[in-house]
Records
---
Amino acid sequence: MDFLQVHDLLIKKPNLLVSLLEMTELDTWHPDVCQFQKLKSYQSLNMDNAEKIIHVTQGVLLQQVNNPDICKISVNAIWSKDDVLFHNVFQQNQYEYLAIGDVEVAIFDARTVLDTLSKEPFFPDFLIEYNRRQQEEFFQFSYMLTKNIRERVLDVMKRFSKKHPDGYLVPKRVNSLLLSKCCQATPATIKKALLDLKHEKRIVKREQHLFIQD
């Protein structure tokens, strides 16, 4: 497998990078290779224009696009534990990152990592892992689509929320736009589902937050 093939696979399936690194002798604890950061809830991850690879080791990280010309921020992606994303590696961007709950990340120097991977022989283990992840993600996505929209909304909201003895406290930043990205539905459909859930008392207001009752 040559360098271009590695790049092609990593663009399509960036989470494979962790499996790839485990096959190398790269010292991922060296500060020139990787740095670790802990973020509090709603804290931004400040990134410069350098080429970086971000590995989410704990929590949920929102990737946002900021358009200063129209003062608009939109959610581009939601990353959770074990997800890997590229920052300014294959294209320059204006992404911002925001922690939902406590988040821990490992930030790799992208050039060092990719140069190391390009020199490694990749064995069938890599392709087996690739196929396993594909099947796993296909099942998760397909299973989600078997549920009605209200159940999808509840499942995703719980993923972002803090567990309490009698339910889940939902962060204020979990809105219809974010839920639409996760649930594969339009924001209008999500708003209708939220109204139905509130009418059924499955979601209530508590301490200025939405609360999902078990």
---
Amino acid sequence: MSVVTLLDRFRRVSVRSLTERRPRSVAGQVFVLQVALVVLLVLGAVLALLLQSRHDSDREARNRSVAVAEAFAYAPGLREALASPDPTAELQPLTEQARTRAGVDFIVVMDTRGIRYTHPLPERIGGRFVGTIQPSLAGRVYTERVNGPLGDEMQAVVPVTGPDGEVIALVSAGLKVKNVTGVVDRQLPLILAISASGLALATAGTALVARRLRRQTHGLGPTEMTRVYEHHDAVLHSVREGVVIVAGDGRLLLANDEAERLLRLPPDAEGRRIRDLPGLAPGISELLMSGREATDEVVPSADRLLAVNQRPTDRDGGPAGTVVTIRDTTELQALTGRAEGARNRLNLLYDAGVGIGTTLDVVRTAQELADVAVPRFADYVTVDLADPVLRGEEPSRNGADMRRTAVSGVRDDHPLYPRGLRIDFVPSTPQARGYGTGRAEIVPRLSRAPGWRAQDPERADSIVAYGIHSLITVPLKARGVVLGVANFWRSRKPEPFEDEDLALAEELVTRAAVCIDNARRYTREHAMAVTLQRSLLPRALPEQSALEVAHRYLPAQSGVGGDWFDVIPLPGSRVALVVGDVVGHGLHAAATMGRLRTAVHNFSTLDLPPDELLGRLDDLVGRIDMDEGDRDTGAGMTGATCLYAVYDPVSRRCVMARAGHPLPALAHPGGRVEFPDLPAGPPLGLGGIPFETAELELAEGSRLVFYTDGLIEDRSRDIDVGLELLRTALAGAADRTPDDTCRVVLDALLPAHPKDDVALLVARTKALPDDRVADWEVPFDPGAVGKMRAAAVGKLEEWGLDDLTFAAELILSELITNAIRYGAAPVRVRLLHDRGLTCEVSDSSNTSPHLRYAATTDEGGRGLFLVAQLAERWGTRYTPDGKVIWAELSQQPGAGGKAAEAAGLAAFDVLDAEMI
């Protein structure tokens, strides 16, 4: 179907019949108008589609002709075929085959004069080509529409060039125009179908719009709509809200009756400029002429407060100007003030819920209550708490031990009691009554209330003279217990506190009281945990000469933990250093730490090597975990670590072993710092894996640094970074004392508020001089006892220990005699002169002597009893080569007298004459 036919069909539609039957309703008229517009739009779209389709088909034909011609012109072998004696014989089959495959109507190869070599019609071969070839002879591709042998054709001519770039032939390919237009005719039904569908949808949409408009206008015609506008105008002038329309040039276009009344406009106000209207308040006049948007903006006008809303009228393409609505808010002002007050109270309560109780500190929480109420509720706030509450204890029943804990005010020069002062409120004060009864009180006029003046008349006069005139006292009560009182003072506002203020104060204090009570209970539990932990940690390090030791312990910010350390003197002037860590915080971690420290002390009295001591400690922790697991308490010790070392000042050797603990640091006297390669054992309680030791020979003045993981580990850095910081700090403190080293290390590694507790132990080694050590090998003969005794006496006289000679003779005689009688060779004697005198007798036997009570008829058995009486301490330690029995004699005054008393006991011991 052609476009002309389609236009004629639409032209024959009888528009006159539509106009003769003009609908009376506005909706019907709109429907007819929109249908006409839709038909015109659809016709235009169909015509555009047809023209576009025709254009696209012509362009496709040109592009295809050019592509086929170029492809054949550049085909391999074309130049050779043109140079052959009979180009037609070789090219005609090729062109026909290419034409069929490419979908074109002809492919013609010709020479530069236009004489055809090929053509779909063989009789045309040898004839002159119909078309323009001059542009192609110049080397360009040329397309044109001509009336050729096949009819009306769309063809393209492409040059064929030789090796030197000269045009040697031409190739033309093309389509018949009727084939091109056939494509358009085949597309026309689809285009018309789509257009018809679009017309149907548009008509349906227009019908829906008209239907909706009909519902909105209720099918009214112009007359009826006029009547509606008349009614609308009547309503506009009868509502109790002013409506004003102002033109863009500042002229008043419309003002209803309420607007004329509120603005006191003259009868001829409409049409005049706003600035020329008499009696219009300046604020209203300025707002109406500004044209700016306003939302509930309150503007005074005469004796009224008017709420004005103003919006521009040209927002949606309307005429320039503004529409204004005006309400009288004078009567609502009081209600608005009360609503604003209620809103402020809610905001204050919200801020109190967020700002009070941010920490578990009693004083800080009380200060937060005072700060949040000033100045929004009161001008000054003071909080008085019972003294036991500040210590974490339950408060007493009377208010005689109150302490001012928090003060906040709009000024700092107030005459109220200062912070920290202990106050004994007299019974006539509202504070004492509130503390006793648990009920809040309000004092509207302080100048007229004699009861509170009895507390301090001179200060009361100063408070009144300062301008503070009203008071609310509210007890801080939680769980039925009164913790203190909060006082709210007013000075700036002339009105006294009212009942509504009292209710708000009670709400504020109730929230704060719960937070203060939680902080109090936390303070009590924290104090208990700290007390327990402090009692379990060493209060003072024991006296010894092998090491110069300093230590630090810093609890975590979250509370006490399980880090611990100890320094344990051992026989033979040796010293044991131990550092441990129990995972977790709180009472259980502190109690666990105490149990481990006690166990280490007990095991150290057996003088066990470090690996064996850790093995026994591991077994103990495993048994305790098993027992507590059986009781289903869930409070086992798993997660504890330990590092144990023994230093001998005679040999300057240190033997260490660790159970899952960080490596110790070793700072040499020259400043070099290293972390010894100490075998890593499993944490305590896992069991089944043996521990290994490492032995180091230390130069005198070396510093051993033991620590827990809280020193080097932190969330903000890697553990390797912490170790490097520790190395740098120790290297920089090479000439410092152990105490200064502790300070330098903590300053370099710890943040202001550590998350984990830290134990640090720094020990600088000392060496026992060679002239303080005497060592002999004893012949395995009872007769050698006397010689050893004589040699020892001589050495003691050399050391100036004459007071200990008698006791040392008796002890050595008994120990050497027992070693020869019950032990095995070789037997050695060693004397150490340190803080006292240590006598050691060693042999290669593992038999250990035992102290017993001898009967009156026994000839022996009193020797060790004699040793125990003469020595401060004595015992046995085992070595890889046997055992060592040692006894320590104190060099304190009176030690010789003790030896003299013991000499009487020696008479009861039967000693061989040969040995004496």
